[in-house]
Amino acid sequence: MQLKNTRExxxxxxxxxxxxxxxxxxxxxxxxxxxxxxxxxxxxxQVYALHKSFGLTILALAVLRxxxxxYAGRPEPVPGIPRWQVxxxxxxxxxxxxxxxxIPLSGWLLNSAAGFPLQWFGLFDLPAIAAQxxxxxxxxxxxxxxxxxxLVSVAALHAAAAFHHHLFRRDATLVRMLxxxxxxxxxxxxxxxSRRDDR
Length: 199
Ligand code: HEM
Ligand code: HEM
Fold this sequence. Notes:
Organism: Luteimonas vadosa
Number of helices: 4
Membrane topology: Multi-pass membrane protein
Cofactor: heme b
Strand order of the largest sheet: 1-2
Family: Belongs to the cytochrome b561 family.
Radius of gyration: 19 Å
Bound molecules: protoporphyrin IX containing FE
Main location: membrane
């Protein structure tokens, strides 16, 4: 299995980051929606602290993923896909990346504006990124929730497109994002090398 992306498929690092982030987002969104209804007390504080720590982890993984994408390039579009569909896919991918950064940052902002401290799994402190401000806290909370539902909508369309390619067009779009043994995509190709464009 290739570490780096090739012209034909995603390498193991991109795949691992993609699916790890998907799993973390599922857990994070579920906990985020559920935790607000918990009764006030130490358990609620603990769940909030975990939500924040996992959220910061997603932020770090998203940054890592973008750096890796810049370094390792990406596969060519699957042959036969019309140009306009390739353009829409690219646009939606960059929107997903933007949301992966903006959602945790809005969480960090709402936490700072509320005047709460921020730690990563109790191991170290992170600075506030805004001064305490009730109006900003309310606004950032709205934005945090809105961006989350935007991500849910875009990711649902994105996953539907992946299944459509797999089930109806029967092309390699989905399998090339899965570990090698799941696909029969032919021999490994040379690494994308130093291609650093973001086409
Ligand atoms: C990708 C990462 C994240 C996702 C998907 C996510 C998702 C959510 C969701 C769905 C909610 C419930 C929204 C509502 O119904 O009002 C929520 C609430 C919250 N999130 Fe996040 N979150 C993420 C990262 C963060 C981070 C990094 C922080 C802080 C550093 C944070 C702090 C909070 C807080 C404090 C609330 C509760 C707001 C309230 O009391 O109304 N989140 N989050
Ligand atoms: C939180 C949910 C998700 C997020 C944030 C997300 C994000 C992304 C991003 C940003 C890319 C573009 C990679 C790049 O060009 O660098 C991508 C590619 C891909 N995603 Fe997702 N994804 C999610 C869920 C899913 C699900 C549920 C599926 C399938 C069932 C899926 C299948 C794929 C496939 C097949 C590709 C490769 C497309 C190609 O080669 O052109 N994703 N994803």
